[in-house]
Every structure is written in structure tokens, then in C-alpha cells.
């Protein structure tokens, strides 16, 4: 009995080591694939007046997000998050982050590498 239990435990150890090696190999191959397929992101500047996408950028970012609607929405999200900090802290964090993103939308758009 003692010999059988030692063989079973050694097989279990080997199989767990083999599983660990397989997982490590899969992670290594996945990481190599991500690195190999990496494309650089190019940040943009505000489109020049008269270009194809300037009107869309002007309406979406300048007039809406940086205008009164974006300001009220951003401050509203921050206030909602501040109210919920003590009741529901998990819900408060996304609200505060969303409000901050709305207030800084033009800088986020030009730094994310969007092609306009």
C-alpha cells in the first residue's frame, strides 16, 4: 500500500508540473503573438478647419462635450459619485471617472491615437 501511494503522489506531482509548464508555454506564446502584432498608435491634433472631419469634430467635441452639455454632464457625474461614495463606493468610482473624462474629452480624443 505504501508503495502504491508514493507512486500516485509522484504521478500527481508530475501532472501538476506538466500543467504548469503548459500554462507557462501558452502564456509565453500568447505574449509573443501580442508583441508581434503590435501596431503603433498615432495621436492626432485637432483637424484643420475645412478638412473632411473638422465639422464632425467641431460638433461632437467642441460644441457638445466641451460645451454646456458636456460640462453639466461631467459635473453631474462627479456629484453623483460623491453622493454615492458612502452608500455604494463601487458605483461611485466609475461615475467620478466618467465625469472627469467628460470634462477632459478633447485632450483624451487627441491622445488616444484616433484617426480622424
The major beta sheet can be summarized as: none
β-strand amount: under 5%
Shape: flat
Please give the alpha-carbon distance between the first and last residues. 73 Å
The helix fraction, in percent, is: over 70%
Q: What is the count of distinct domains? A: 2
Q: Helix count, per DSSP?
A: 5
Order of helices and strands: HHHHH
Report low-confidence residues grouped into runs of 5 or more.
none
Overall mean pLDDT: 78
Structural category:
mainly alpha
Give the beta-strand count. 0
Radius of gyration (CA) equals: 26 Å
Commentary on this structure:
- Helix 3 runs antiparallel to helix 4.
- The mean pLDDT is 78.
- This protein is mostly helical and 116 residues long.
- The chain is 74% helix and 0% strand.
- The longest helix is centred in the N-terminal third of the chain and has 35 residues.
- The chain folds into two domains: 38 residues; 58 residues, no CATH class.
SSE blueprint:
Elements lengths: L1 H35 L17 H12 L2 H17 L4 H15 L1 H7 L5
Helix pairs in contact: 3-4
Identify the notable features of this structure and list them briefly:
116 residues, mainly alpha, 2 domains, 5 helices, flat
How would you concisely characterize the structure shown here?
Helices cover 74% and strands 0% of the residues. It has 116 residues and is mainly alpha-helical.
Amino acid at each position: 500500500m505504501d508503495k502504491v501511494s508514493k507512486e500516485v503522489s509522484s504521478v500527481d506531482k508530475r501532472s501538476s508540473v506538466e500543467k504548469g509548464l503548459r500554462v507557462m508555454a501558452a502564456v509565453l506564446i500568447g505574449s509573443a503573438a501580442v508583441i508581434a502584432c503590435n501596431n503603433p498608435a498615432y495621436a492626432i491634433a485637432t483637424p484643420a478647419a475645412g478638412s473632411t472631419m473638422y465639422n464632425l469634430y467641431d460638433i461632437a467635441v467642441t460644441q457638445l462635450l466641451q460645451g454646456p452639455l458636456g460640462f453639466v454632464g461631467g459635473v453631474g457625474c462627479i456629484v453623483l459619485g460623491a453622493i454615492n461614495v458612502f452608500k455604494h463606493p463601487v458605483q461611485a468610482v466609475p461615475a467620478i471617472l466618467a465625469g472627469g473624462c467628460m470634462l477632459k474629452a478633447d485632450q483624451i480624443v487627441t491622445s488616444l491615437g484616433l484617426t480622424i
